[in-house]
User: Which sequence fits this backbone?
């Protein structure tokens, strides 16, 4: 424990290691450690500690909720270990379960902080429409039994672009200093679900990039666009919902298993 405290108090004497990892969040309570529940952070931390033989603190770019997946999540940790980068990657990966893997490991500048240095993040939400159940994507996408109107969804999505108060699309009861966020890009792509490609089942991929996200923000955006696509809410009511700044004025939250963290952006690094 003393070594760990010294490590954190004087990180300039240590190596700063950046990792980019991918995971299926189905079996975890989310990224952040929670007592009595398996988390991605704790699972990776334990693997790192078993390789470096020292206690480390893994810093993630942000929290993903229970059941949420990551195509590429970024994290970093400080270590006095002299194990080469390739050795760290191979060793840590050898101790991780099948649903978590390091994509890359690199030496980072001492100033690099996976959360504080991030300038933007991109998430994707998957919605699949099919009249029958689809077992292969039961925990990988939000499956609906009815069609969605792509054009209506796109018109609503454009109203979400730019800087807004997203209180109506934030988890209720959340305490935070500012609910203002800027969405820099939002795109909806309609394609065929890859797991069921021969059947030509429609999949809607909603990708959202922003300078930051509120709790459940992307899932609430997906829930709103789904209701608009189902023509239960007119697309132009999106503006009214934002201006209300009231979570009860927006549709229910979309389930966690359709959400993926795609990328964390660090311009200039």
Assistant:
């Amino acid at each position: 424990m003393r070594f760990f405290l010294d490590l954190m108090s004087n990180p300039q004497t240590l190596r700063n290691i950046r990792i980019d990892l991918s995971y299926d969040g189905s079996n975890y309570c989310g990224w952040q450690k929670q007592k009595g529940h398996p988390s991605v952070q704790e699972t990776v931390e334990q693997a790192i500690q078993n390789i470096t033989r020292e206690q480390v603190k893994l810093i993630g770019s942000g929290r993903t909720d229970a059941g949420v997946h990551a195509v590429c999540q970024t994290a970093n940790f400080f270590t006095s270990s002299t194990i080469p980068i390739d050795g760290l990657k191979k060793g840590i990966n050898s101790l991780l379960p099948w649903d978590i893997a390091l994509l890359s490991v690199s030496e980072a500048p001492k100033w690099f902080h996976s959360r504080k240095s991030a300038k933007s993040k991109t998430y994707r939400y998957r919605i699949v429409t099919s009249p029958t159940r689809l077992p292969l994507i039961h925990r990988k996408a939000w499956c609906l039994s009815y069609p969605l109107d792509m054009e209506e969804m796109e018109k609503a999505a454009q109203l979400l672009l730019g800087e807004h108060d997203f209180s109506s699309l934030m988890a209720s009861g959340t305490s935070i200093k500012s609910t203002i966020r800027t969405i820099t890009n939002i795109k909806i792509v309609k394609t065929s679900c890859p797991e069921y490609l021969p059947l030509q089942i429609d999949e809607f991929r909603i990708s959202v990039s922003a300078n930051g996200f509120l709790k459940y923000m992307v899932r609430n955006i997906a829930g709103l666009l789904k209701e608009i696509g189902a023509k239960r809410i007119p697309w132009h009511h999106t503006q009214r919902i934002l201006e209300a700044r009231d979570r009860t004025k927006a549709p229910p939250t979309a389930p966690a298993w359709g959400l993926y963290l795609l990328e964390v952006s660090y311009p200039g690094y």
Remarks:
- DSSP finds six helices and ten strands in the chain.
- Residues 167 and 245 are 5 Å apart (CA to CA).
- Residues 1-7 have pLDDT under 50 and may be disordered.
- Strands lie at 15-23, 59-60, 69-79, 100-108, 120-129, 142-144, 162-165, 180-192, 202-210, 259-265.
